[in-house]
Amino acid sequence: MAASLQQETTILPYIPPRTSSHRRQSSSGTAFLPEDLNIVPAGPSSSPNRPKSMSANKRMSGTATSTTTTTTTAAAGQQALNGVGSSGNKFNAGAGATRFPFKAKSAYFTSSHTEFQAALAASGNNNNERDPKRVSQPISSPPRDSSLLRTSRPKSLSSPFEGKEKLVLEGNGPFEPPRNFGDKFIDGKVPTWTAEKEGILMGPYDYLYGHPGKDIRAQLIAAFNVWLKVPDSSLAIITKVVGMLHTASLLVDDVEDSSLLRRGNPVAHSIFGTAQTINSANYVYFLALQQLTALPHANFAIQIFTEELLMLHRGQGMDLFWRDTLTCPSEDDYLEMVSNKTGGLFRLAIKLMQAESPVADRIDCVPLVSTIGLLFQILDDLLNLSSPTYTQRKGLCEDLTEGKFSFPVIHAIRADPSNRVLINILRQKTTDEEVKKYAVSYMERMGSFSYTRKVLGVLEQKALSLVREGEMLVGGEEGRRGAEKIKGILGMLKAL
User: Fold this and answer.
1) pLDDT tens digit string along 76-103?
2) 21, 38, 185, 423: least CB-packed within 10 angstroms?
3) Do 16 and 139 have their domain in common?
4) Do both 153 and 208 map to the same domain?
5) Residue 97, domain extent
6) Is the distance from CB of 429 to CB of 398 less than 8 angstroms?
7) CA-wise closest residue to 433 among 400, 389, 387
8) pLDDT at 54
9) Which of 123, 149, 169 finishes a domain?
10) What integer pLDDT is reported at residue 115 of this predicted model?
11) How many CA atoms lie within 13 A of 35 on its CB side?
């Protein structure tokens, strides 16, 4: 009987004792979970190599409790570490050995089924004498005799991942991250933004900036500075900021209006895409704000910037709402929208200049520049529907294709609310030139263009009156020269 119980040895994983909080209860008793050594199941416990000599009855009665001689040698241990039992099969301890149903990535220990039993008997924890209801269940706990153990598990871990990291990432493998991974981005001390990346973001803006328009805003700034005497350094910043904001706002306008041409060229979003164009415009808004921090009165300048940008977006929002809901505004609503939208950048420029001017207390230029803003936008509405030059630069009656309630359109609709012809043309957002020409002839019959020209004349007279007041307040040669420059800009607008 003793000879028949002689067993070959195998390498079994050491499962360290865990606290009660790490035990999982089952019908067979307490099973210790081997997460610490990153142990994975080796396969079903009902292996075909599982010994059949130790039946449940023998284990229960204790008749097969013979002392087994350990036959482990250094070579056998090395084979076990390589995952090969004495029979030559990987993770197979031979015909008479019991294989623990787990394999470990780290450490192994030597034993056999009978050694397992002997170790348990010596420690006083012989589970052979357990509940008969459990005799058919495999022993789930490993031996606690430290003489049977051989493990390389670290004594202490500084983190719950340290042991497993050493098993997986030990050495200089291709998946091991560099030591200082991400440090330059985390610390923020090493600049990583390049001129090439900046050029990518600025592409749509630079494209439109490369096709300049009339640049009326820069001319207005130069004309008003005869009266305000802003220092050259501050004036350069203000001029740059206003130009940046104007160009960026045109990028957004072209997207929101579904325009095809700007200044006689394809719109930026047709070349760079809508998303990149919008991002470029928004980026420039903040670059402009950053420029203002260099002004001597930066806090006041930032406040002005914020207020006028809010007004600009309010005006644009109402303009889009009327278009998208096919709602015809009143003249007062229209004038408020224009004052916020178009007049916003004119006011922004003059307010920034007055904030930096050493003589700002002698004149307030805001009413004059607001009047010029209204004049400029209503004139633009008229030219969009009637000027051949405008047609070459932006297309025939682009406002009709957009479905926009411009000043002449509002007049024509309100002149005869019962006639839905113009409303229906706006709804179609047509590109048909014959339909557009019919709409223009309809507005001509309704007297809308004539009415618009009269309104422009009234605004021009208001502006000239304010120019004369400014000339008197400033006085002298400076007052006269400034007035002449501003009148020249008004004349240029009239000649468009």
Assistant:
1) 444 544 444 444 444 444 444 444 444 4
2) 21
3) yes
4) no
5) 10-169
6) no
7) 400
8) 46
9) 169
10) 60
11) 9
**Residue 195 or residue 2, greater confidence:** 195
User: 209: helix, coil or strand?
Assistant: helix
Judge if 367 and 469 occupy the same domain: yes
Shared domain for 140 and 273, answered yes or no, is: no
Please indicate, yes or no, whether residues 162 and 206 belong to a single structural domain of this protein: no
Amino acid, single-letter form, for residue 441 = S
217-271 confidence digits (pLDDT tens) = 999 999 999 999 999 999 999 999 999 999 999 999 999 998 888 988 999 999 9
Q: Which two tokens stand for residue 96?
A: 């008479």
Under 8 Å between Cβ of 285 and 245: yes
Q: So what's the pLDDT on residue 17?
A: 57
Question: How many Cβ atoms sit within 10 Å of the Cβ of residue 106?
Answer: 18
Structure tokens that stand for 279 in this block:
């991002």
Which single residue is written with the structure tokens 């007062």? 332
Q: What is the pLDDT of residue 443?
A: 96
Interatomic CA distance for residues 419 and 228, integer angstroms: 50
Which amino acid does the sequence have at 12?
Answer: L
257/350 same-domain check: yes
CA distance 286 to 417: 44
User: Which residues of 150-262 form beta strands (DSSP E)?
Assistant: 261-262
